[in-house]
Amino acid sequence: MSPERIAALVTRWVRLYTAGLPASVAQRRIEEIDADLRDHIAHEHSSGIGNRRIALGIASRMVRGAAADVAWREHEARLSQTRSSKEQTMQTRLGTSALRVTAFVLAVLAIPLIGAALSDEFAWSVGDFVLAGVLLSLIGIAFELAVRRSGNALIGGAVVCIGVAAVVVGEADDAPGLLLIGALLVAGGSAVAYRRVQRVR
User: Same domain, yes or no, for 93 and 72?
Assistant: First the structure.
């Protein structure tokens, strides 16, 4: 009974109880145990201990540590499940937010699009639709951040500045639609900044 054969048995045991865990976690555990076994064998050899006694010592450690190994596996499994659940929840929230923002932008842009189809008064170019889409997306994102209490003072300030610029341009060009969008941007940016202040408090 050589130490290397018992070490190989321990390695198989480690691979068994780490099966089903994330690959990175399982591999790290296997490498840690392998390194520990090599150090153990080298240290015992340097102390003049015979192979049989070293092998018995390794086997004894494996048996005595089996319960701790199972407990470690359960702990890591719970952690992995929690991380996976959080990631799935975050992805679901992001997907829902993106859908809401997209639906909002399309619903608002549908108004001038229908108007342009029915009347010559809505003389919107492709550039107008693109600009409106970008600004409306900013509005949607700002309100999503505010609703989710993910406020950020820098983002809020930037959105407010864009809104003020839109209002100024809208007044100069006598564009009520741009004025409304600017006002909504200011409101959205203010809401985001306000959420940030609430979080700090």
Answer: no
Q: For 20-46, what is each residue's pLDDT tens digit? A: 888 888 899 999 999 999 998 999 889
Nearest-CA neighbor of 5 among 45, 46, 50, 54?
54
| Segment 92-146, tens digit of pLDDT | 667 777 777 777 777 777 767 776 677 666 666 777 778 778 877 877 777 776 6
Q: Examine the domain organization and report whether 105 and 164 are in the same domain.
A: yes
Structural domain of 31: 3-82
Task: Write out the two tokens for 113.
Answer: 């699009």
Distance (Å, rounded) from C-alpha 131 to C-alpha 120? 20
Q: How many CA atoms lie within 13 A of 183 on its CB side?
A: 8
In the block, which residue shows the tokens 């842009």? 109
- Do 123 and 116 form a contact (C-beta atoms < 8 A)? yes
Q: Which two tokens mark 36?
A: 């520990």
Residues in the chain: 201
User: What is the distance between the alpha carbons of residues 127 and 104, in angstroms, rounded to a whole number?
Assistant: 19
The number of angstroms, rounded, from the C-alpha of 90 to the middle of its chain's C-alpha atoms is 6
* CA 190 and chain centroid, separation: 26
**What distance separates the 2 farthest-apart alpha carbons in the chain?**
98
Q: Which pair of tokens denotes residue 123? A: 């003389």
The helix or strand, by DSSP H or E, that contains position 180, with its residue range, turns out to be helix 176-200
**DSSP conformation class of 124:** -
My answer on whether 34 and 61 are in the same domain is yes
